[in-house]
């Protein structure tokens, strides 16, 4: 311990010193003989390595009437292999101190492994085993199906999840996969069996259409050697990627109340669709959306939270749903405003929210708002990408969205070059006050009349 | 999914995309013990400072822990520590309104605050070149908050916190389970009997005078630990801390925390049956466990990991894989230093399963660990998972700063953060068996048994999703 003398009172706000350069890491790209693409990225000090495997199993590829089979398939990969039972496999993996997550989304399937680098070879061996020789036993697939059926009501009970399902249902035509839950409905999940899962795996999960992203401190790791006997030994045919699908969305201004009698809050989700990251407007949209609802000092929370106290926080966001190769079709993202407000304040909060949108459309963003947004969005990059997992996640997103490996780095440069007028134009076009679908999960008896009085579109009520 | 109860806190904000909660994945076995270092300093006003250098990334974390949490609250004023945490973001002498948030985010930083039973912490993670700003901001509110605190902020943040309570607890299925469990596990009058979020009635009752008194009592340099971690120049950092914090006067008005000790064993099972609008029956059990800072707490962590963490735990294998009576089964340790820790077991039932069968299976698995102890493979699995978990906490500058503060505030020695991994790895199978036998007993638990309201009582809807909800 050292003792330090006390000094003096108030000082002016200090200025920043000189910034140390930082750049989003550039991965090294290679293709193995099996056709598997590998992106690797050495991050000094990152001793827990992240491995992401992107599979070309978008939900559009699911057979008619079997919504949810992609999710069951990626989950089932780690529930028993040619070498290990499901219990043995899980125990082996956890003895490496590893976690393995799986996810199926509109853009594709994903396995996410994280493991201390000292046990990387053993864990990648298990990951490869799951991809090369999944057992897909009747018993394990039945268990996963039954577990999923049990989870559907649990998820629907969450106001946020329930709102998201209703939004997709209302926004997209029935023919579109995006209108239906990612993990299927009770009706479709019931139909899934081991034979179907095996067929889906054989049709779509193959190395030529897959990418493995490996990020971490690879000092002294013979990654090529590790991959050769593991992921590199995963073989399959080389059929090309799936046809691109485009979808329309009905953003007619309207309100749907999902009735939950007795709710103490109303969950709100206001949305429509917008462009994907290929669109040149994306950086302006990111800045504009941040200014609208990126943080508690953005326009929405400045009023709804910090002035009125209606909410713990309302956020505006954009999430890519479709992102085909630029040349092939148009992409799509979900543009959304979400949060929850106390039941009594539902009408006034929505009224204020629309007033914020109108004020923004009429007067635009200020230069100062734009500057703060850019400084935050660009400035937080070294914080955001401190871990291997965060870098691997973004690289894998780029792969799934058919973006160049240097996309994220370029995005930071483009954000810095985007002006106030462009950001205003993008966010105003993204959230036009008369083209927004509003989902409210709450007590219809209390909120319907006040919401109707706002004239933000016809109001319908559906059961909770 | 496994429970994540190792740190139960009440956060100020929703996550802001990718920036608000540190996500760490970076340490090694060697970094965990030998690679990281920290130096300790004390200003003459009593502020303790911990510095830890790491130049891999141009970022620096500032973390300030005040030794005050909900255990210091008095009857009728539950929730005050957390409400006060919100007020700390409402401006101080040189910072207008939401300036704290605006300045940090405008500098490319991220920030938040959390309140728990035992502490309140504030943190800013900054690009290196903006570190001084974060120190200036924290010093300004430590020294001058009351010059800016007014009724308007108080009324506004009271409403915000009430909506936080609704969003996180009251409008969520099973959302009040934690509060109910705590109230049973820590008896009436115990400083941990209530949770940091507080009750609606007490939030309504809190006054500006309460908030001012709370600040005057607890927010002093000699009741805080400041950690600065990352791409820092220690001498320069020390000089800045001295410059900005050094003149804030110490004071000694703090009331000591009430005694939280309790007998090792509750003595009888305490059980509550809850009929609520929940989607499925659920079983939640809380066990009184050894306090943090003891070897027994580390053994308990290993025991609960063997039983209920990950996809290969005994409870997951038994209930989810073999019996297929549960959707999920987890068991985790909420470590507490000033009172017994709490082991939290949670099972969501699968359609048609009988609660009695699930309880019998849980009892059997818990008793079996106490009777026979763990296998070598189970020890390896649990210690590998916990090693990783602890190393992750040291793996980002923000979470490392948080751990340094935790050990400094709760145990008086920040260096303990760096040796936590080796303590976990030194736990032996007999120690695991012993803590399981001693603690995981029916007479040492509280039980919440959730049953959904009868299907016909909730609603007459014929919608298919409602049917799914009721007719599992």
Describe this structure in words.
The complex is a heterodimer of chains A (464) and B (472). Chain A is of the alpha+beta class and 464 residues long. Chain A has 2 domains: 28-233, Cytochrome Bc1 Complex, Chain A, domain 1; 254-463, 2-Layer Sandwich (Cytochrome Bc1 Complex, Chain A, domain 1), CATH 3.30.830.10. Helix content of chain A is 39%, strand content 20%. In chain A, the strands form 2 sheets. Chain A has a 6-stranded mixed sheet, with helices on both faces. In chain A, strand 5 and strand 6 (108-116) form a beta hairpin. The longest helix of chain A is centred in the first third of the chain and has 19 residues, at 138-156. Chain B is an alpha+beta fold. Chain B folds into 2 domains: 10-15 and 32-245, Cytochrome Bc1 Complex, Chain A, domain 1, CATH 3.30.830; 270-471, 2-Layer Sandwich (Cytochrome Bc1 Complex, Chain A, domain 1), CATH 3.30.830. Chain B is built from 18 helices and 12 strands. Chain B has helices spanning 29-35, 80-87, 99-106, 131-144, 151-170, 177-185, 200-205, 208-218, 234-245, 295-308, 314-322, 355-372, 376-393, 397-411, 416-425, 429-439, 455-458, 464-471, and strands spanning 10-11, 39-43, 48-53, 59-66, 110-115, 120-127, 224-230, 270-276, 282-289, 326-334, 341-349, 445-452. In chain B, helix 10 (295-308) packs across helix 16 (429-439), helix 11 (314-322) runs antiparallel to helix 12 and helix 12 packs across helix 16 (429-439). At the A-B interface, strand 1, helix 2, helix 4, strand 10 and strand 11 of A face strand 2, helix 3, strand 6, helix 4 and helix 5 of B. Strand 1 (3-4) of chain A pairs parallel with strand 2 of chain B.
